[in-house]
User: Fold these one by one.
Assistant:
Number 1:
Amino acid sequence: MATELIGGVEIHVDEEGFMTDPGEWNEELAPALAKEIGIDELTDGHWKVIRFLRDDFAKEGQTATLRRVSTMANVPTKDLYQLFPKKPAKKMSYIAGLKKPVGCV
Amino acid sequence: MKKLLVLGAGTAGTMVVNKLRHRLDADEWQITVVDQNPTHYYQPGFLFIPFGMYGRHDVVKPKRDFIPPGVEMIQAEIEEIEADNNRVKIEGDRWLDYDFLVIATGTHIAPDETPGLEALGDEGPDNVHTFYTLEGAMKLEKRLRTFRGGNLVMHITEMPFKCPVAPLEFIFLADWWLQEQGLREDTNLTFVTPLPGAFTKPVASKALGGMLEEKKIELYADFNIERVDLDANKIVAYSEEEVDYDLLVTVPLNMGAAVVGRSGLGDELNYVPVDKHTFLSNQHDNIFALGDAAALPTSKAGSVAHFAVELWTENFLRFIDGLEMLEHFDGHANCYIESGHGKGLLIDFNYDTEPLPGKYPLPGIGPFSLLEETEMNHWGKLMFRWMYWNILLKGKEMPVPALMSMAGKWSAG
Ligand SMILES: Cc1cc2nc3c(=O)[nH]c(=O)nc-3n(C[C@H](O)[C@H](O)[C@H](O)COP(=O)(O)OP(=O)(O)OC[C@H]3O[C@@H](n4cnc5c(N)ncnc54)[C@H](O)[C@@H]3O)c2cc1C
């Protein structure tokens, strides 16, 4: 499996660059991951989403969808698009060190 | 007397009471099923209505015809599930207690969740439609009779929704129907989806995407709708992308029953989180959810409900005797895809294996071909209606196995 050096730390990633081991992630890593995808600063708004994703993943074992974040963390989808422009589902999970949410069947 | 209470007498709930009535001793078990609607809809038939291939009478029958003797059927709205007290409140301030509860309240469209779609109904604009309800399908049939070309857009709001292949089938049938009407040259067909491609699973997505291309149907992927602009006749995405339409056919957001959410038993879309192999609720060890009502990582489809109920029945009989539940549901789904011109495809998959080409149900023989357009597959789809009313709902044995088999399939390679 591929590894990548992000913010001076070596992490395991899949072919799209998403982290494959949630245990390798910590909050210090998030700003470096964010920079990789063009988000230069993580605001409180970003952190609210990132922390929700981490907590929810710990409980559910899967990455929350946009719908789940908007209803459970009370962040309107519109805001998610502002915080993580164009591809919020991918970007938020990338920064939170999780796989992108599975497009259910 | 032990009490089994089933909420919802749709595809799953009806199969459950039919399967269990003759397996549970009538002196020991009382079985009750509650549904607010006296009519059973054959929902897969809704697809054919807009094109005049089926009418109302092809898709409705009284629910009572499918409820076996010895099962009490109550027609009422379910208002609250009080899981901690093992009881359910229904319309008219009545309470029903249970020892075991099966939630089979399905999923339904929730157009109100998308600005601009609130009016999708009787008084709605005449160029915004859905075929996900009988009334909607009939209204669309009427509208198509005066269609003279332009931009026809088939749009999916959000995953998951029931029968994930139905929108593709709709646009394939539309392509065929428009050719027959001599309107195809004057119509742009566009397929708009929140998915990154034509379908979720890679091999099928590629095959179906190829068919869209062949039929000159434009694919607009990764489109996450924010609203419908009824004045400008366009759908607008959160990313601010837009698609113009003259006739919009949409699959609105699908949601589980509101009573599930209200009772604290649902996820963000009111689906019941359950064990994906046994359907036992994550929260209560006497509650199961079957059919579309369950939050499962497989398709919401009648075929899935059928395979699930088959395995669940055996398990339930073990469970009530205090034995460990055995057979493990694998997410098996099996869907016919109408592709127009009297042909169809068939896909067969589960939690772990995506749809692959091959033959079904008999390896190497068929008669149905997987992921390939044949006339036989189309007949399979039409035959399915007869099987649904006469075999499936009544809980009789279907000539196909409940667990997916890899025999007869070619691997992705
Ligand atoms: C257009 C279309 C095409 C389809 N095509 C196919 C196909 O080709 N193949 C396939 O396998 N599947 C297909 N499906 C999907 C299939 O119809 C469903 O997956 C299946 O019917 C699900 O069964 P269910 O029992 O879970 O839900 P349903 O059959 O929808 O039953 C739910 C029941 O619960 C009742 N209910 C809900 N809430 C309450 C309440 N609060 N109080 C009282 N009663 C309540 C409802 O009245 C309903 O009777 C299609 C669906 C549609 C809409």
Number 2:
Amino acid sequence: MSMLKIENLSVNVADKSILRGLNLEVNAGEIHAIMGPNGTGKSTLANVMAGRSGYDILEGKIEFDGQNLMDMSPEERSRSGLFLAFQYPVEIPGVSNANFMKTAVNETRKARQLEPLDAMDFLTMMRERAKLVEMESSFLNRSVNEGFSGGEKKRNEIFQMAMLEPKLAVLDETDSGLDIDALKIVSNGVNILRNENNAFIVITHYQRLLSYIVPDFVHVMFDGRIVKSGGKELAIKLEENGYDWIKQEINGY
Amino acid sequence: MNKEFRKKAEQVFENNAQLSHGKLIEEQLRASAFQLFLENGFPNKKQEDWKYTNLNFLNNIEFEFSEQLNDSDLESKQINDFLLSKNNEFLLVFVNGFFSKKLSNLHLDGYDNIIIGSLIDAVQFDKNYHNFLGSSLDKLNDGFTLFNTSFFRDGAFVYIPENFILDKPIHVLHISDARHNTFISNQRNLILASNGAQVKIIETSYQIGDKPSFYNTITEIFADTDSVVDYYKYQNEEKELYYIGTTQIVQFANSVLNSSTFTLRPHFVRNNLNSLINGDYCESNFKGFYFLNNNEFADNHTLADHASPNSNSNEVYRGIINDTATAVFNGKILVRPDAQKTNAYQSNKNILLSDEATLNTKPQLEIFADDVKCSHGATSGTIDEESLFYLRSRGISEAIARSLLLSAFADELINEIKIPELKIKIKNQISKSLNIPEFIV
Ligand SMILES: Nc1ncnc2c1ncn2[C@@H]1O[C@H](COP(=O)(O)OP(=O)(O)OP(=O)(O)O)[C@@H](O)[C@H]1O
Ligand SMILES: [Mg+2]
């Protein structure tokens, strides 16, 4: 059974058709990359999966771990192992990163009928995971993303992912705005966390990231659909030639 | 004011005139206040300052005057929950406007030159103190002030001598005993901070018993040159207590006033907070937070009265309003012609959690000097949906995500509280009101 199965997904935003019959299947242990021009609906797909409101689902279904995602609230999706690293993480003044994660981890544990972590265990875990993305512990006491630089926000997303240990993580342009060192750190984090039981969908514009996080599949999204899929060499070809040849291919038939 | 109440008032006023030890203020002052009160009565909605304050309780409830101390059947353990700390505060307890020595806890050994006690004792000790009474209020002649001046019989008195830094806070606890009677209580507190003195005052008000009651209290604070006065109000009384409290501060040069008002789940609260900045280089900070549910009502009227140059006033009030509750905020900044180089800042932010919640917020700027920096802003909105989704996308339930965002909104004010016991008390109360589970705090 596949971990994620999206079938014929069509979504409107504000009466505008954005996703038009999208199909995607992801199995445990796999890394999928999604590439595609600006505005083709990559973030829309990620947001619909995470359960953000404001989208009209016209058609299709998303199955995650055998469950129908559409029936679940955003928190239920997260607790069942889905994680989205946002393209634009929000700033939340007054809520500390540590408190945020303590609440998230313990709410998730509660849903899985586990006892809350005690303060010491939690602190140890948090320090260890922060180290994974080389995030200084001072960031844990700061308000969520408030005043963080673009790169620090992205790193914070990966830190949260490390805390929640999802089955499927969708990284929406986590590489944008990262310098080379940060890119290595973030990719390294992902590589440490990956195993045969989890999976990643990496949305990116750059092949650069994919030399650190090597994908099993590369998909090209265009006009709300996945129009071409291939191996990691497809990313290299896109980097060299852009998207025009794909547009021609589509228009060809 | 109906005929019966008027008759009762006249009677009590006459009785009080016979009491020699109750004469805290000049008879003339008292008499003219009462005369004016009889002419004008209590305020009503036609008056600008009372436009949004529903004072119908004055007509609907038949009150009697509280005329003597009655604490014989009260014990310390009944007020335990109201304390901030057992030994780390000077506790002054008043029951329906009268000082209860029995319930107070002053342990003043080693504090030689300071005075903390009842107004009556203080004035008997040194008659000069009584000259201060009412002197800050000459322009405040609304009905409740006049009523208070006509009828108060006692209150807290604090005198901090020059350059004395008082370590522990002074807690003035107003208890409205509504077990057997439906009382109106008047109380007048007087705080004198001498040159360079530093003092922390906390005022709280609670009701015991379930009848309705009305507490009308005034605090006059004189902050002399270079003094620092931290003034807290903590209001958390859900019973049928109608509370109207005026605080009038007079600040002299270089003095600092830090006022913080926390109003959590009150039945009916009206706070008037006025600071007259009467010297150069003063600082006047007004902070406030209110959290209202059900049909609760909180009304904060503030005035930063800049009468001298080179001073700063800084005001931040925030509120969360739920259900059919009503909040009123009116922040007036007055910059008199001489008060050049004034900096005055004001902000009032509100989160409305229900369509039926009501907010009336109004800045009122009257500026008569030209070299002045003034800014103000008032907002009201709902919980930020983006933030809510972000928290939920990490597995946090919607209810807890809301609570987290709301307590973050309050925290910015709570974190500034300098009295640890008070901070903890307020934090706990807010967590409780917001249903925040224990593992988060
Ligand atoms: N709330 C909205 N109202 C109107 N249009 C929207 C809304 N949200 C998204 N869109 C539109 O949907 C389209 C797809 O947006 P989306 O963010 O999914 O693109 P993307 O593929 O992630 O692009 P990028 O590579 O720039 O991040 C865009 O044209 C965008 O303007
Ligand atoms: Mg995008």
